[in-house]
């Protein structure tokens, strides 16, 4: 590439076709690229090549790359600038494109086209020496002021003429008027800045009118309206307006544009001052808790006390309730009922396995792929600032090099501090004092002591067999029937069968497996009911199709009653052997009517 002190550009250059901005030797210009040939050039030359030579490309001004690579090439502008790609940034937002930062080296003229696809390759002739332009000047688009960064059409044409001027004298003649115009522009801008606030308002009014005209302007104007309408505190509003100002000056192709935009979108969506109205009626709350949950009397009593005190003293900075007990005993479900009794939104935050404090407090925005933490995300999801947050499994919090999440939770739960909770991503305080936090855990042994200290532990013990039978018949069976689209007229699980499900197919303190087994029974029965339903609906039973369907064609006699043998057919052989006393066994047999059972079984599993 070096010959006799002067640097030679390659005689064959891939060409980038541009129609906005002109790259002049010695200047550095940012180009946004999204058309097919140009995209191919970036992918196949700039991103794949490893040598310095592969980063040199020809930039042809005044020529638009066709929208499809099957389209013919337009006539290329005759003179271009060879440049070195110093930066390539790819982004998928708002559509796939690359942003190239190119420093101009020297002019060239196109001698002949070698190929048009997948990108344009041409034989070129170098027009001037390289040494004079080796110090890159300022990035032509990265001006301090957005207004200055925009090249007018006239300016653009003038720049093309400067490029085309081969002799120094001619080039000077073409460049001088451009410089004079730019100096005039700068003077005018200085004058506008010194104008009275009244004038300034007019300028911004005109500016906003102008912005409303194009899509992008529309977008930022709408965002600005949302920022003002989000009812956020002074500090947050100030940050948003600052970010908005930055956003307006940024070209959309800049990766930071999307980041700032996402940040602002979140800020306007957060429920800074949106809340639901509490509608607590202690009597209704008691009925609701009783209706939703069988047994758990101690827990329900304490929850009612807690709610009653909250009703009398709304600004209660009381302890955080923490339900501790084995899995499936209804801890989450009580939390949900509390939200319903208060008329509040409910959100569950699973903390099991969380070992990074940024999960709670978010990542700083400088971090690649930064996000807000789970608390702020939860608030965005529920859309109000006074939900019930259930911090599930606080006993399973982990610790790692990325900080202790328990320490971040301490701040969240401390009523003295949480009105000023600062998520790293938001970088401004969000008031959490209206949020009602409830925690759950399987054991207190692994809850960090400082956290445990802020909580009131309510033990939720496991259930006895009798309690489980009641829970099954009052809650689990009706719920499962509804979830599977069945009615008690279609499926009947007698009280005598439930203890068998509990002791032979589950071994747990709670009722979660029991619920799953009931679900499995519902599914098996649903298939039978649906089969019978289709048959009666679509065809009448004739001797022929009866033969074709075999015995299965007979619609089941409803309700399908699940007794011990049906249970075995559906759930398989018992997983746990039951030690049943003789008396109990005989009493179980007496409730079973062999004839009814036989008929049902024939329908169900023949
Ligand atoms: N006393 C009860 N009355 C009615 N339903 C109950 C009762 N206890 C548990 N359930 C039901 O059992 C299922 C499991 O309960 P839930 O998910 O609340 O358990 P959990 O204690 O939060 O479990 P985990 O610790 O695994 O999260 C739910 O469908 C719930 O409605």
From TrEMBL:
It comes from the Eukaryota. Residues 195-204 have a biased composition (Basic and acidic residues). The keyword Cytoplasm does not apply. Residues 13-248 form the Lon N-terminal domain. GO terms for biological process: protein catabolic process; proteolysis. One of its GO terms (molecular function) is ATP hydrolysis activity. Residues 192-218 are annotated as: Disordered. InterPro entries: AAA+_ATPase, ATPase_AAA_core, Lon_lid, Lon_Prtase, Lon_prtase_N, Lon_prtase_N_sf, P-loop_NTPase, PUA-like_sf. SMART domains: AAA, LON. Keywords: ATP-binding, Hydrolase, Nucleotide-binding, Protease, Serine protease. Pfam families: AAA, Lon_lid, LON_substr_bdg. This is Lon N-terminal domain-containing protein. The keyword NADP does not apply.
